[in-house]
Amino acid sequence: MGDKTNKKNKKKSKDEEEMDFPRSWLVKSLAKTYKWQLLESAFFKLLQDLLGFVSPQLLKLMISFTQDMSIHTWMGYMYAILLMVVAFFQSVFLQQYFQRCFVIGMQVRTALTTAVYKKALVVSNDTRKQSTVGETVNLISADAQRFSDVTNFIHLLWSCPLQIILAIFFLWLELGPAVLAGLGVMLLMIPINALLATKSRGFQVENMKFKDKRLKLMNEILNGIKVIKLYAWESSFAAQIQGIREKELKVMHKFAYLSSVSLFIFSCAPALVSLATFAVFVSASNENNLDAEKAFTSISLFNILRFPLAMLPQLISALVQTTVSNKRLEKFLGGDELDSTTVRHDSNIGRFRGYPHNVPGSLVAVVGAVGSGKSSLISALLGEMHNLKGYINIQGSLAYVPQQAWIQNATLKDNILFGSQLEEKRYQMVLNACALRADLELLPAGIDGGQKQRVSLARATYSSADIYLLDDPLSAVDPHVGKHLFDKVVGPHGLLKNKTRVLVTHGVNFLPYVDEIVVLTDGKVSEVGSYQSLQNSGGAFSEFLNTYAKEESSKAELGISLLLPAFTFMVKFSVYMQYLRSVGWGYFISIFLAYFIQNVAFIGQNLWLSDWTNDSIKYFNTTYPPSVQDMRVGVFGGLGLAQGLLMFVGTLLMANGSISASRILHSRLLDNVLRVPMVFFDTTPSGRILNRFAKVCDIFTVDEAIPMSIRSWLLCFLGVIGTLFIICLATPLFVAVVIPLAVVYYFVQRFYLATSRQLRRLDSVSRSPIYSHFGETVTGLSVIRAYGHQERFLRHNEATINENLKSFYPWIVSNRWLAMRLEFLGNLVVFFAALFAVLSRESLESGMVGLSISYALNVTQTLNWLVRMNAELETNIVAVERVNEYTKIENEAPWITDTHPADSWPDSGKICFENFKLRYRPELDLVLRGITCDIGSMEKIGIVGRTGAGKSSLTNCLFRIIEAAEGCIFIDGVDIATLGLHDLRNRLTIIPQDPVLFSGTLRMNLDPFEKVSDEELWQVLELSHLKDFVTELHEGLYHEITEGGENLSVGQRQLLCLARALLRKSRILILDEATAAVDLETDDLIQSTIRKQFSHCTVLTIAHRLHTILDSSRVMVLDAGRIVEFDSPSALLQKQGHFCAMAKDAGISSVDSTAL
């Protein structure tokens, strides 16, 4: 019972949340903005619609001309020329209308993208947390695009009804009340179509949910790929993705079946409508003779009717989808903004209220345990927190260094200047002060966490603001670098000595030098005072002074983002073949046959009609025999039904085939991406990889766009062939014209395709920066706002959009260029069909004239569509090519080989390096230059060295994240190069630098393969000091963790990583700077657990905090990829070498020293 109430309450609160934003204003605003352009395009559309009804009347005159030999021949020529002129003007008006609509669509997309971007810069943190970065990027990639697409066809809302009314009016003139029968059939179709559309919409929404879920997980996998590889968890995550994908395909199946039914109804519709009308017309009275004039004028009018009737349901479903987008955009754009009154800049009030001691130019340290609210305090000073009461007053400009450095994908210089003017002297001074110069020379390839943090600090220092908010920037760097930064930048003699600095820190050794210390406990200020006074007070602060502080580092690329190379070659035929192979040849041949026979039935039906109209001459002035009439109606109806059924069968087969292709291509892509070596992920932006899986990119295209394109292309192609066949059958002279027309057509479309392909590629290449810049902005929002650089980022966003429009606008114009030329060709077909009918009027039956000209009138549209479909298919098939490209990337070594180690391996945990050399990529220098050493069983080894000395590379090579360039590593006598990667990685344990968690349950994060019992999990949680925390959680082990573990503190994430290590029970443990970003308390917990629980293991610890390794059996000192010292800590301290110098920097004089 309680559960039900809970659910109800949940639903209620969700509904309240849904109602919590202004509605129904976006469309009105857009309409108001673009009203004149909309009216102008409406005028052209109206002219084009009206002209469309002139052609059937001319066709009628043309038929009566061939029947009535008394009409002068020149009238026939005039009709033929008029047919062409009317068609020509129709083309001109239509293209003018399209040009305007597409430009409005483009403007709407741009306006929405900019509005969303502007909003993102001021959105409050609560609103921001409601959606992930990916979902926010979707607003501009999917939702704004949907608006743009609908704008192109918005006029059909009035144009379709207008065309339907006019067509019915002219049909009434031809056939009288019999039209009502046809109309009845059409009206019957509407509710059926509406029902199918609502059903389809339900499936689409469901499908989108699965797509979002799959993308979110994929994004996390790519961000945490290193951890997944280290733990050998690829297959578990692959299974999770495949599980979601199967559900997605299931929904696609249902959707495809629904589409087949609606297509069946749609393709039966014209046949049923004309059948009902003609049958009623002939049965109504014996006087009613179906002659060629009536039949073919009606057929032409029915053809005009087909378009609005086909478009209305599509338009309705597009509008329905747009309402979803509209709601999402209104929700985001109407969301809460930052409360600008929280932070005031009033010069009459003292500085930061609450700290009366704080004078301009002082250095205030903020300390406290994990979760005590240190980072929240900084966020509050920035105005980023939700304000309950009170306010903050700040005088002067701010600079902010966040705990997790935010680096833009740009050059190092751009990152430091951050939009300021370059002053070379100041820039060099900042580089030196932030200790960046030495590292730049050492590491051209990538930068680690410590360097990122220094770049972030350099950015702040260069900005020369008045107040500096520093959220623990010194924890992520080596001790000697930390000391250097404090001395040269932050401390009392640094570059910022005259500025106000608020420094959150875990580093106890800096505290004696600060002017004032603020101690936080549970979100409240518990003590404020100088170092000396607080130390003597014996309060919360004195508990801090017993341990030491930490370090963090993480590998990441920093470089200039490169545009994708532009491909100028045509899409290779082999790509099409590959897609068809994935569909299956059996399916493809059956699909082709179904559509081909359907087309034959269509031609048959029209030939039958043409023959039927000749009865009016045959039985002229005599009674029409009922048996003949029934046979005519029966065969005509039967052929119509056959078309519908064949269309249904073809579409069903297409659905099954394309879903099997989607399944195969996605599985291959996923399987290969997870087997690619780590170097690939280090050098490829994750956005580019994600695009292969994304909604608007490749897999989406394979799922939805390609099957549609192939179907439309086949139908268009068969339609054109059918039309030419009929015209040639009626007037064999036409064959002479077909060949030159075909040659012109071929050249026009080749020229267009080459241009269009390039423009589409440029469009997609220039679109990526819009999304990546937007994603980057959302991630670094607090930094951008702290520096007050919103305006600059807005301008940059506008510049990237303009860059994209430069290739999008020419694409619109190129479509109009093509359409004008193709429609002119179509108009020539009409002209020649009419001209040859005039020339051979003696020998031609009027039925054949009607048939050939009414077919010709239709060919213009079909020709245009064929090229469109050709271009679309070429554009879309590129997705298969791109997916394919990622299935061919060279894999890392096999996960499992024939050489299996013993089950108990490694039982003693001895490690032996023999002349081991390593480089990251073939073209780069060696990172490890001949490491040779033996590490005994159960030894505890500390590994130290400057940034870039090769410490992390040493752990990478144990897991074979990077393969050896030379030499080998033996673990318990087994050469690790002979093992499968999973065999190796499953037997070693690492607590990595970054505590990476994945969205899902807590249990999944500890044991993704579900091999371990709950009891064991509780045991390790107790050992890793998390049991109390997890017990308090409502769902316990099944507590949902958000993307990247955002709903846990950094300390808790690190303890979870410790729990993972405890679960694996292996004999070798590697700690890769594992206590980097945690406070002293957590660090202590981790260290003591490791000492107890891993006492029987060989432990390698990479540490920048020398205190953590003073109790090691031996310390290995690395420098530029070589071992320079390797001995016990006490021996090294006496030796006066590298280690001794580092110890001095950290204030250590002896092994049991606990200097502050």
Structure description:
The protein is α/β, with parallel strands linked by helices. 63% of the residues lie in helices and 8% in strands. The chain contains 39 helices and 20 strands. The strands form five sheets. A six-stranded mixed β-sheet has the order 4-5-6-2-7-8, with helices on both faces. The chain has a six-stranded mixed β-sheet with strand order 14-17-18-11-19-20. Strands 10-9-12-13 form a four-stranded antiparallel β-sheet, covered by helices on one side. Helix 5 runs antiparallel to helix 7. The two termini are 58 Å apart.
In short:
The chain has 1156 residues and is α/β, with parallel strands linked by helices. Helices cover 63% and strands 8% of the residues.
Count every beta strand, where a strand is a DSSP E run of 2 or more residues.
20
Distance between the first and last residues' Cα = 58 Å
Q: What class would the helix/strand composition place it in?
A: alpha/beta
Low-confidence segments: 7-18, 350-357, 546-569
Main sheet overview: 6 strands, mixed
Family: Belongs to the ABC transporter superfamily. ABCC family. Conjugate transporter (TC 3.A.1.208) subfamily.
GO molecular function, one term: ABC-type xenobiotic transporter activity
GO cellular component, one term: apical plasma membrane
Domain ABC transmembrane type-1: 41-321, 591-875
Feature tags:
39 helices; alpha/beta; 8% strand; 6-stranded mixed sheet; membrane; 1156 residues
